[in-house]
## 1
Amino acid sequence: DTAVSQTPKYLVTQMGNDKSIKCEQNLGHDTMYWYKQDSKKFLKIMFSYNNKELIINETVPNRFSPKSPDKAHLNLHINSLELGDSAVYFCASSQARMASGYTFGSGTRLTVV
Amino acid sequence: DAKTTQPPSMDCAEGRAANLPCNHSTISGNEYVYWYRQIHSQGPQYIIHGLKNNETNEMASLIITEDRKSSTLILPHATLRDTAVYYCIVLTDSWGKLQFGAGTQVVVTP
């Protein structure tokens, strides 16, 4: 069973479009995260939700909006996609924000053309 | 949270021990040292963490110097599957958000 699953795995879309990436975890964790890894391979945290409540919101354009319908799901919606949004987006979860217990998904490679 | 410095890359022969250094000279008393790794095209994976004492688990050992200004991650018998980017991260207590630096690209060769 996949612990943290993201869909889709690959996403190619045109500039200006709106797209969503879905994430689900079956570990019973109460905290979920979105990370972005750009072409230079730096992995940066974007958002974190704890029990459906937003607890981390890094400096990210307003075009990015996370939504957590329940503590097992954290989706990422991106409006008006730009070329610079091309990256690999990783979802992760942990229990009680324990830094030793992050479990990451396999990533969604977003390409904006 | 304290910053860390790691060499950008290192090679290791298969079957030999890989010793990955990390410098965290500004670490404070309540900050932990965490190690994660990212195998190509996968999400990062937790390896080990420690505060003061040396730690060992099934994946690796963590040696922290007495002054806590540096640490070494040891992969005792490196395999080809250990080829990955290894990240050393320092965090205040266990609740901090994981922030990844550039890490060390480790290549294990046959």
## 2
Amino acid sequence: NAGVMQNPRHLVRRRGQEARLRCSPMKGHSHVYWYRQLPEEGLKFMVYLQKENIIDESGMPKERFSAEFPKEGPSILRIQQVVRGDSAAYFCASSPFGESYEQYFGPGTRLTVT
Amino acid sequence: RKEVEQDPGPFNVPEGATVAFNCTYSNSASQSFFWYRQDCRKEPKLLMSVYSSGNEDGRFTAQLNRASQYISLLIRDSKLSDSATYLCVVNLRFGAGTRLTVKP
């Protein structure tokens, strides 16, 4: 059973470009979570999605960031007009049911904004 | 006050030592509690769920104290391989992590 998959593993963008990060949950998991880890800091919750629904986006910055989890295909975290401060590791996790269940993490996407 | 606060560490202990981490949370209605470990800023790996009755897995014991709003992780007989950053999670919110180094 394949684990959570994220791609790309490394992404370099210039300031002002768009970044698209993809996450495929474990088979049978319909709940996806995105976290950001800035250098030398802990993981910060961003958003929690179930298929086609955003359940909790209280950790998402109000501007430039959006997330979706369509009926078919991976979850996408989209960052528009990236800035240097967006450079971080972005981790995706999935669980079979809701947030009370264990989450399994993907390897992360390292975003570097130049 | 942060939603989840964790011992800052670092903890440097000899092999065989017993070490305990605590984590406090602010939301009394919190329902989910976990401990993860993270190595070299790779993806977090699930260590244990934390239940009201407490739970044990080999050398690891996790406990929840709802009245005082904290969870704890106890590691007995520390191994070199236990060196990592330990992260508590309460309702999807991570603590900042505690760095543990086990030395020979």
